[in-house]
Structures are given as structure tokens and as C-alpha cells.
# Entry
Amino acid sequence: MQRSRAEAAQREAIAATFPRKSWLDHLRVQMLAIVLPVLLLALWTFSSTQHIFGAGLLPTPMESAETYIDWIAGKSRGLVDPFSGTWARNVAASFLRVVIGVSFAALIGIILGILIGRSRAVELLFDPTIQGIRPVPVTAWVPFTLIFFGISPAAAISLIFIAAFFPILVNTTAGAQHVSVAMLRAARMLGASEAYLLRRVVLPSALPQIFTGLRLGIGMGWVAVIVAEMIGVKSGLGYILWQAYYWNRMDMLICTVFTIGVLGFVSDRIVYVYARRKFFWASR
# Structure
């Protein structure tokens, strides 16, 4: 009985601190979110119809939409189009590489970040070298991946790993370093071991920062996969982007860039929404 009353009081306190917004407030926020895309679409339409960049160079939104439908559904418009119907397999190839690369980066980055954040010896051992390597752009690693892995999916995944690893590591380290001293002291007074502290105190406290690092890492992963696929493999959205440029297919360039943006946005929103609901106390 007392527990149910305590839970009810806790829910009331949370509701009072974070009041729910009305549907009208949510609608206003959503309307703001589409203002800039509508303006960009209007600018694109004007530029293509008025031939601002030259006649026939920039396709209209309607022409790009027709190309996108053909790319997805494979309904060619009476022409032999090598891109027709290839959307699904190229999206799947890029998505799989991002998932594998970011997953390995998260696994190693989170473990190493927690250790660096809580151990002075581990910090001295790894941090100077990591901070020296971190500013190197991901494109600088392309020759090394091609030398060691050749033109293969492994080369692309290794670039994604490098790009995603550092944001995850740095944010995890920051989260582990800013754990409440009072919580650590209380746990030690109750006889908690260092392993228990890392698992039950440090890791949960650092989770908001870790998820911030994951969001950044996923974004960098999509950047890296395009760079890698333009050079190191023969499939995926980066490969399609390069082929569209090679064949002067501006409509396919636009469709590919749009697809990359949508996939990056959706993957970021998934992590963001989960983190916002799970760690609402840290996002206010």
C-alpha cells in the first residue's frame, strides 16, 4: 500500500515538473519543422524551371520523383537504365555496413571509454595516442584500408569503424568522468567493489552521454560509408553516387543524396527517441 502511494506521488511529481504539451503545441512544433524543407523545395523548383544553372542541368522535383520511383520499383520509362530497380539492394548493402561498423565501434568505444574515464593509469596509457589520431580525417585512412583490405566490404566497414569510434569513445569517457562523487562514495560505503561500481553506478550514469556519442557515431558512419563505397566497393549508395556522377545523371545524384539523408535522419531519430524516453531526467 505504501509502495503504491509512493509510486503515485512520484508520478505526480514528474507530471508537475514535466507537464504534457497539448496536441496544438505539438502541431505548431511540427509545422515549424517543415518550413525550411518547403522553402528549399520552392527554391529548387524555381532554379530548375528558370534554368538558373543552365538549361537541362538541374532536373525539376517532378523529374527527380519519377527517377526515384523507377529506381525503387524498376519501372523503366522506355529506356535501358542500369539504376532501375536497384534501390533496395544498394540501401541494404550500405545499411548493413553501417550497422556492423558502428556496432564494433560502440562495443570497443564504450568499454574503453569507461576504463579511461575511471582509471588514471588507463587514461595515461591510451588517451595521448587517441587524441593524436582522432583529428586525422576519415578520408586520410582510405589508402590504408585499400592497401590492407583491397576493394572489399572489409575496407568500407573499417572506415566506418574509424569514423564512429572516436565520437563514441570521447562521449563515453566524458560521461564516466562526471559520475556523481556522492553516488560513488555511497556505493563504496555499502561495500561495492570496483567492478560493481563500473557495472552498476558508472555505466548507468554515463548512459546519456553514451547515447549522445552513439548519435554522433551513427552520423559519422553514414558519412564514412559513402566515402568508402565511392572508392572501395562495387555496391551501396556511395557506389551509386559515384556512378551517377560519372554518367552525368543529376537526377540520380539528387535521389541518392536524398536517400542518404533520410536513412541518416531515421537512424538518428531512433536513438534519439529511445534515449529521450529512457533518460528523460537528463534531457530537460
The mean pLDDT is 85. The radius of gyration is 24 Å. Residues 59-282 form a domain with the MetI-like fold fold (CATH 1.10.3720.10).
